[in-house]
Design a protein that fits this description.
Mean pLDDT: 81
Shape: elongated
CATH topology of the largest domain: Serine Threonine Protein Phosphatase 5, Tetratricopeptide repeat
Strand content: under 5%
Distance between the termini: 63 Å
Protein name: Ankyrin repeat-containing domain protein
CATH superfamily of the largest domain: Ankyrin repeat-containing domain
Structural class: mainly alpha
Pfam families: Ank_2, Ank_4
Helix content: 40-55%
Order of helices and strands: HHHHHHHHHHHHH
Keywords: ANK repeat, Repeat
Length: about 230
């Protein structure tokens, strides 16, 4: 009898079909086999946010830190991109020993994705499992930069409390205040101002204007009038 194909396993994982996955494994399927697109079952289940399928695959021996061949993302990274909190810490990936510090090809970590997309619960879990809040991607962008640009107040607060470097700059010389201003985030910008973050640095995207002037250019003239949110 011919063993099930990688395509069958990956299709079942993509649909979150635990019963089918179990059936295929009993028939001799390799749950770590790649399909024609280079995907494996655990990556697809995590990307879809199917925590029961992810849990079953982990228990069945799936490699937790396998990387997607296209962008180098791990199941942990995909789960954070999708905001799939149950996949990350529902007794599955983090508790199962997945590498919270794994990076994709652009140097981005799970914490960076969770911060950029505004998932405070995922950010907190990543921090609890010792993800570095000061880590930077290939462009020097940190989790705090991503959160600031997106205007994610709760995430910014969690990162600062977790030890994020307020004045860290990316490759263009922009710090979190610049990102908050460029993203037109009045609340976050005000919080950074009250936190005495350096606001006189050069911001390449603002043609060398300080972030407060950049915010004014974006018509966020109420920047200094907003009460502290941090």
């Amino acid at each position: 009898m011919t063993a099930p194909t990688a395509k069958q396993v990956c299709d079942a994982a993509k649909a979150g079909d635990v019963a089918k996955l179990r059936e295929l494994q009993l028939a001799g399927a390799d749950i770590n086999a790649q399909n024609e697109d280079g995907d494996v079952a655990l990556l697809l289940a995590a990307q879809g946010g199917f925590h029961e399928a992810v849990r079953w695959l982990c228990m069945a021996g799936a490699k937790k830190d396998v990387m997607d061949k296209h962008v180098g993302a791990t199941p942990m990274l995909f789960a954070c991109i999708e905001g799939a909190s149950m996949v990350v810490n529902g007794g599955v990936l983090l508790d199962g020993g997945a590498d919270v510090s794994a990076r994709d090809k652009s140097g981005r970590t799970a914490l960076m994705f969770a911060a950029e997309l505004g998932h405070p619960e995922l950010v907190q879990w990543c921090l609890e499992f010792k993800s570095d809040p000061a880590a930077a991607d290939v462009n020097g962008t940190t989790p705090l930069h991503y959160a600031a640009k997106g205007g994610h107040v709760d995430v910014v607060k969690a990162l600062i409390e977790g030890g994020a470097a307020l004045n860290a700059v990316n490759a263009k010389g922009s710090n979190a205040m610049h990102f908050a201003a460029s993203g037109s985030s009045v609340q976050v910008s005000s919080g950074f101002w009250r936190h005495s973050l350096h606001v006189s640095g050069v911001c390449a995207r603002a043609l060398a204007h300080a972030p407060l002037l950049y915010a004014h250019m974006l018509k966020d003239v109420v920047l200094l009038e907003v009460s502290c949110i941090i």
